[in-house]
Amino acid sequence: MLLSSPTGDFVELSVDGYQFGHSSSASTGGWDENWLQISGRVRWGAESWVFRDPCLTTWEAQELLGWFRRTVESTPEGIDFTEPNLAFDANSNDGFVATIVVTLRGEAAAPSCATDGGL
Q1: Is 34 left (phi over 0), alpha (psi -120 to 50) or beta?
Q2: pLDDT tens profile 54-73
């Protein structure tokens, strides 16, 4: 998924496999088997960076897909996840272009940000 701005800033996210591969553990209610490794490439102003972190579950990825589909017709409430590294908010939607705000924290944040800060 690539989100970009007219100024050249962008966030590109992709699923890069599962955090634990194909675990057979059932003791965690399926959580371990459902953590996705997310790879990201970001350019924001003069900074560019990459990250790879297990910051979404398969369930959250499905929820995010539904959230993006809703932005086509409306401006939904923001969405965040179990791990606070990624969050999305829709600021506006004029019927043609939706303005999406992406928040990156922790391992996904710019190297110049503190580990508890965000972008």
Answers
A1: alpha
A2: 999 999 999 999 999 998 88
Helix (H, G, I), strand (E, B) or coil at 21: coil
Tell whether pTM > 0.90. Answer: no
∠100-53-108 over CA atoms, to 5°?
A: 45
- Residues near 44 by Cβ (< 8 Å), separated by ≥ 6? 9, 110, 119
Q: Which of 42, 16, 18 is nearest to 108 (CA)?
A: 42
3-class SS at 77?
A: coil
User: What is the pLDDT at residue 97?
Assistant: 82
Which among 8, 14, 77 has a CA at the least distance from the CA of 43? 8
Mean of all residue pLDDT scores within the chain: 88
- Cβ-based neighbours of 92, under 8 Å, separated by 6 or more: 75, 98, 99
Provide the residue ranges of all domains of the chain, joining segments of one domain with +. 2-108
